[in-house]
Write a structure and sequence with these properties.
Helix content: 10-25%
Radius of gyration: 15 Å
CATH topology: Ubiquitin-like (UB roll)
Distance between the termini: 39 Å
Strand content: 25-35%
Number of strands: 6
Largest sheet: 4 strands, mixed
CATH class: Alpha Beta
Order of helices and strands: EEHEEEEH
Strand order of the largest sheet: 2-1-6-5
Number of domains: 1
């Protein structure tokens, strides 16, 4: 990890992709998030994805509220060593809105919104309901 290039806030961007060996094999990009050194260390120690939440200003275990965890299959660093790519096995949906991927809204080449071509995998209002 010493040669990874974290930004001035101590963070590195992480692209999270469905592992190519899932059933069916798809490789869809699920989300983009940020890691700091501590979240990286916890991810590698546990085999489950941990991130740094910029909005909450704290370490975040993916699935701590929803139970929708991400198991690490393999990971890569880009040629500049400033972006990571993790392949994961996702439990249920990755997006907090209920969709499989955070990238569910498509646009045409002119920037017009396209109809969403999938249904949420879970009801976000129920999963993230506050007691």
């Amino acid at each position: 990890m010493d040669d990874l290039k974290f930004n001035s806030d101590g963070l590195i961007p992480v692209i999270v992709q469905e592992a190519a060996d899932t059933t069916p094999p798809r490789g869809r990009v699920l989300m983009m998030a940020w890691m700091n050194k501590e979240s990286m260390e916890r991810t590698l120690a546990t085999g489950k994805m941990h991130y740094w939440s910029r909005s909450r200003g704290k370490l975040w275990f993916k699935g701590e509220s929803s139970g929708h965890t991400q198991e690490v299959v393999r990971w890569y660093v880009d040629c500049d060593k400033d972006t990571l790519l993790f392949e994961v096995r996702q439990t249920a949906g990755a997006c907090h809105t209920g969709y499989e991927s955070c990238f569910f809204q498509g646009f045409d080449p002119r920037g017009n919104r396209l109809p969403i071509g999938e249904k949420p995998l879970f009801d976000a209002g129920q999963v993230y309901a506050k007691p």
